[in-house]
Design brief:
heterodimer, A: alpha+beta, Beta-Lactamase, Helix Hairpins, 4 domains, 5-stranded mixed sheet, 4-stranded antiparallel sheet, 12 helices, 11 strands, elongated, B: Rossmann fold, 8 helices, about 40% helix, about 20% strand, globular
C-alpha cells in the first residue's frame, strides 16, 4: 500500500542521485569509447544508448527519476556530442530536430513505462487486498457471536488498511447496548489523521458503524472495499438477527407449551391426593367413621399416603425449578456407590415387593465424586419408574460396570417393560412427558427429567434404550466420572491386622 | 427421672409448634415453645429443658448460631429441624454441637425415636462415661479395647477400633464426616472423606450380619454416620 501513496521528493533522493550518476557514467563511457568514430555513426549509437539507459532507470527507479535522467541525458547529449561541443549551443537545424525528437522519445518512453509499472504494482496490490477481504468475509460468514464479529473486523481492518486505529460498534436489535471493538492506538502525532465513518446498515436499519483513522487518505479502491465489507457485515448481522428472533419465538412457544403441560399434569397430580386427604379428614372429623375402626385406619392410611404423594410432588417440582435455573449444584464428596445403592434399596424395599430384583454390583467399585443425596434420588426415581411401568413379577436388574480406561462408572438399570418407540425414547426425559400407553400410572412426568438434570450436573450422561436379551425390555444407562477434576480418591495407607486378645493370651500362656 | 421430661421447641411456624406440642404432650412430656432464637435462648437458660428441638430457619437469627450459643454453657441434646435441601446448614449445625436432625416433613415415629435417644443422652450428661457399650449382640469394651459380636471376639485394627469407639460413645447421635475425621485421624485429615468410606466398609464387613443392609453403622447421606441407638 505504501507504493500507492504520493511520496515526498526527499524520500526518493537516492533514486535521483542514481539516475543522474548513471547518465553521467554512460556519457563518460560513450565519450571515451566513441572518440574516434565518425559523427554519422556516433549519434545513432549515443541516442540508442541513452534511450536504453533512460528506460532501464524508469523501470528501476520509477517515473520521475526516469524523467530526470532524460533531462540530464538531453543536456549531456547536447554538450558532449552535438556540434559545437562543449557548449549547449545548437547551430544545425538537423541537430535541433535530433535533440528535440530524442527528448520527446525519452519522455514518452518514461511516461509509458512508468504507467505500466504503476499499473502492475496497483493490480498486485488489489489482488492482495481482495484476497484479504475475501478471507475476512469468509471468516465473517462463519461467525455467530456479535462480539466475535466485531473483534475480528477491527483486528483485520487494522492490518489490511494500515490504519492508525479502527473503531467498531455493532448491535443486533435497537434495544440492545452496542458491542464495541477497536484496534490500534491514536498517538498524539497522528490524532489529527483522517477519519472515515462507514455505516453498517441493512434494509434501512442501522446496525452500527465502522470508523477508520489513517494518516493518508483512503484510495477509492480501499473505500469501495470498506463499503463492501460493511454491507457484508450487515448481512451477517441480519442473518444472526433472524436466527435469534426465531429462537426467541421458539423459546416463548416452548415455555407456553410447558406451562400448559404443567397445569394439566400438576393439577391432576395435586387434586387426587388432596381429594383423598380432604375426604378422609372430613369424614373423621364429622364422626362418620371412627378413628379406631378398621375403616378409620384405612382412611388414615389413605390420608398419610396422599400427604406422602404431595410431598414427593412438591419436592420434584422444587428440584425441577432448581435444575432449570441452574441452581442445582451437586455437593460432591467421595462416596461409596454400593452404600448409596444399599440405602436406596432399603427405603424402596416396600415398593419393590412385587418385582424380582437382581443386583450385579462388584464389591471393587471405586469411590466416586458425587452428591449422595442427589444420587439416591436418581436411583430412587429410576427404580420407581421401573416399578411403575414394568408388569408385576418381572425382573429388574441393576448392574454397575467400571470402565477404567474412560475413567467412568456405568450404571445399567434394566426392566421388562414394553418396548418404546424411537420418539418415546428420545422424549422420555422431557419434563411432563408421559408415555401415551400409561394413562393409569400416576406421576407428574418429572422424575426422569430430574435424573437427567442431576446426572448431567455431575458431568455424566443418561440415556434409555430398548434391549433384547433373555428378558427384553427397557434399559436406563448412566455414566459418572471416576475422577474429581482429574484427581482420584486418596485412600488410607494399609494397616496391620492385629492379633485377637484371646489368642494373644493363649500364646503367652 | 422423677419429673416429666421438659422439651423446648424453638420454631416460628405456628402449625409446627401446634403439631409438636400435641404429639409430645400426649406422650407426657412437658413442652415449652419459643418462636425466635432470642426467646429460645432465654427459655433454655431459665427452664433448663432436657431436650431442645430447634428449627434452623428462624426469623431473628441463624439456627446454627443458636446451637453455638447454647453449646457455650449447656450439653442439653439438640435436635435440629431442617428443610430437605439445607444439607450444608444441617452439617453446620451438627458441627456446632447439635446431636441429630429431622428433615421436614417428618413422621411422628421418627420424631419420637429421636426424642427418646436425646433423653437418654440427657440422662447421662455429667455421669462418668460408660466403659462398656452394648447394642444388640455387639459389645464394645472401651477400656479393654475388646469388641465382641455374639460373644465372639472381632479383631479390629487400631483405627477401626478408634472409629467404632467414637461412634459408640456418641451412640444414636449423627456425627459429621468432619467431626469423625477430626477425632479419629486428626485435624489435617478432616476433609479426607475417602478414609472414612474405606474404614466404614471394613467395619461393616466385620460387624454387620449383612454389610449391605447395615443395622448398626448407619449412613446419613451427605452428612455423616451414626451408630444405631440401643432399643
Amino acid at each position: 500500500m505504501l507504493d500507492m501513496r504520493p511520496s515526498h521528493s526527499w524520500q526518493r533522493l537516492p533514486s535521483y542521485v542514481l539516475a543522474v550518476a548513471t547518465v553521467g557514467l554512460v556519457t563518460l563511457m560513450l565519450f571515451t569509447a566513441l572518440a574516434d568514430t565518425g559523427n554519422q555513426f556516433k549519434l545513432p549509437i549515443v541516442i540508442l544508448a541513452y534511450l536504453l539507459v533512460i528506460n532501464i532507470l524508469t523501470l528501476l527507479a520509477g517515473f520521475w527519476p526516469g524523467i530526470a535522467s532524460a533531462v540530464v541525458a538531453f543536456l549531456c547529449f547536447n554538450y558532449y556530442f552535438i556540434e559545437p561541443r562543449g557548449t549547449l549551443l545548437v547551430t544545425h537545424i538537423a541537430d535541433v530536430i535530433v535533440l528535440g525528437v530524442f527528448f520527446m522519445v525519452a519522455v514518452v518512453n518514461s511516461r509509458l513505462l512508468g504507467y505500466v509499472q504503476r499499473r502492475a504494482i496497483e493490480s498486485a496490490q488489489r489482488e492482495r487486498d481482495t484476497a484479504r477481504f475475501y478471507e475476512l468475509s469468509l471468516a465473517l460468514v462463519g461467525s455467530q457471536q456479535i462480539g466475535e464479529i466485531a473483534e475480528l473486523l477491527a483486528q483485520r481492518l487494522h492490518v489490511i488498511l494500515h490504519a492508525q486505529r479502527i473503531e467498531l460498534s455493532l448491535r443486533l436489535f435497537a434495544d440492545e447496548t452496542p458491542v464495541v471493538a477497536s484496534a490500534g492506538k491514536l498517538t498524539t502525532k497522528t490524532a489529527g489523521g483522517l477519519a472515515y465513518t462507514v455505516p453498517i446498515a441493512t434494509a434501512g436499519v442501522t446496525l452500527g458503524h465502522v470508523q477508520v483513522w489513517r494518516v493518508t487518505a483512503l484510495s477509492t479502491g480501499e473505500q469501495r472495499l470498506l463499503r463492501t465489507l460493511a454491507a457484508e457485515t450487515a448481512l451477517v448481522l441480519d442473518r444472526t438477527r433472524t436466527a435469534r428472533t426465531e429462537t426467541r419465538a421458539q423459546v416463548l412457544e416452548e415455555s407456553d407449551r410447558l406451562k400448559t403441560a404443567l397445569l394439566g399434569s400438576v393439577s391432576h397430580e395435586l387434586r387426587t391426593p388432596l381429594a383423598t386427604i380432604r375426604a378422609g379428614a372430613e369424614s373423621l372429623r364429622r364422626g362418620l367413621v371412627l378413628p379406631g375402626s378398621r375403616e378409620g385406619r384405612e382412611l388414615l392410611d389413605d390420608v398419610c399416603d396422599g400427604a406422602q404423594r404431595l410431598t414427593r410432588l412438591v419436592d420434584n417440582m422444587l428440584d425441577m425449578s432448581r435444575i432449570e435455573s441452574g441452581a442445582l449444584h451437586p455437593q460432591r464428596e467421595w462416596v461409596d456407590l454400593i452404600d448409596i445403592i444399599d440405602g436406596t434399596l432399603e427405603h424402596l424395599s416396600d415398593d419393590l415387593g412385587r418385582h424380582r430384583l437382581t443386583l450385579d454390583v462388584p464389591e471393587t467399585v471405586p469411590l466416586i465424586p458425587a452428591d449422595p443425596v442427589q444420587l439416591d434420588q436418581v436411583f430412587t426415581n429410576l427404580i420407581n419408574n421401573s416399578i411403575k411401568y414394568a408388569p408385576t413379577g418381572t425382573l429388574i436388574t441393576l448392574q454397575v460396570v467400571t470402565q477404567a480406561v474412560e475413567k467412568l462408572v456405568q450404571v445399567q438399570l434394566s426392566n421388562q417393560c414394553q418396548r418404546l418407540s424411537a420418539d418415546d425414547l428420545s422424549r422420555i426425559f422431557d419434563k411432563f412427558y408421559r408415555l401415551t400407553h400409561a394413562e393409569r400410572v400416576q406421576g407428574a412426568g418429572l422424575g426422569l427429567s430430574i435424573c437427567k438434570g442431576i446426572i448431567e450436573a455431575h458431568g455424566g450422561r443418561l440415556w434409555a434404550e430398548n434391549w433384547s436379551g433373555s428378558e427384553p425390555g427397557l434399559r436406563f444407562n448412566f455414566t459418572l466420572p471416576l475422577t474429581w477434576d482429574g484427581a482420584e480418591p486418596r485412600l488410607p495407607p494399609p494397616e496391620a491386622q492385629p492379633q485377637l486378645h484371646r489368642q494373644a493370651q493363649e500364646t503367652l500362656a | 427421672m422423677n419429673h416429666a421430661p421438659v422439651i423446648l421447641v424453638i420454631d416460628d411456624e405456628v402449625q409446627i409448634q401446634r403439631a409438636l406440642y400435641k404429639i409430645l404432650s400426649e406422650r407426657h412430656y412437658r413442652v415449652l415453645v419459643a418462636a425466635t432464637g432470642e426467646a429460645g435462648l432465654a427459655s433454655a437458660a431459665a427452664e433448663m429443658p432436657d431436650v431442645i428441638i430447634l428449627d434452623l430457619g428462624l426469623p431473628d437469627m441463624d439456627g446454627t448460631e443458636v446451637c453455638e450459643k447454647l453449646r457455650q454453657w449447656t450439653h442439653t441434646p439438640i435436635i435440629v429441624l431442617s428443610a430437605r435441601t439445607d444439607q450444608r446448614q444441617k452439617v453446620a449445625a451438627l458441627d456446632r454441637g447439635a446431636d441429630n436432625y429431622l428433615t421436614k416433613p417428618f413422621g411422628i415415629d421418627e420424631l419420637l425415636a429421636h426424642v427418646r435417644v436425646a433423653l437418654r443422652h440427657a440422662a447421662h450428661i455429667g455421669n462418668a462415661p460408660e466403659s462398656v457399650i452394648e447394642i444388640g449382640t455387639l459389645r464394645i469394651d472401651l477400656s479393654w479395647h475388646v469388641v465382641t459380636l455374639g460373644g465372639t471376639e472381632v479383631k479390629l485394627t487400631a483405627t477401626e477400633f478408634k472409629l467404632l469407639a467414637y461412634l459408640a460413645r456418641n451412640e444414636g447421635r449423627v456425627l459429621t464426616h468432619r467431626g469423625i475425621l477430626n477425632e479419629v485421624w486428626g485435624m489435617e485429615y478432616e476433609n479426607q472423606v475417602e478414609y472414612l468410606r474405606v474404614y466404614m466398609r471394613q467395619l461393616r464387613t466385620k460387624l454387620e450380619a449383612d454389610p449391605h443392609r447395615p443395622r448398626l453403622l448407619l449412613t446419613e447421606p451427605g452428612v455423616g454416620y451414626r451408630l444405631a441407638a440401643r432399643k
